Amino acid sequence: MKTLKPLIRASVCAGISLSLAGCLTSTPHWDAHFGETIQQITAAQILNPQASSNTDPVAGLDGGAAAASMFHYSKTFAQPPIVGTPYGVGLGTSNTSGTP
């Protein structure tokens, strides 16, 4: 009986303290700075923030040369490259045409 009253008091105090702890904010400093890190990371990824105001055209290939380059580049994927056998690495080629 003597140990029952202190246990009841302790449990009531614990219940009150836990219910009051839910009403408190423990991170006012963190809440005030919420989202600043994402803004800093996003700003660090932008190379030139004034790029949209640049009206100077980009120097490089003209349209015809760029189109021809892309056409020849895309043709390289039409047929897979010929791969030799792993046993013939470094052996050279044979001459079957009959001329030395």
Automatic annotation (TrEMBL):
Keyword annotations from UniProtKB, A to Z: Signal
Domain of life: Bacteria
Signal peptide location: 1-21
Name recorded for this polypeptide: Lipoprotein
Species of provenance: Paraburkholderia madseniana
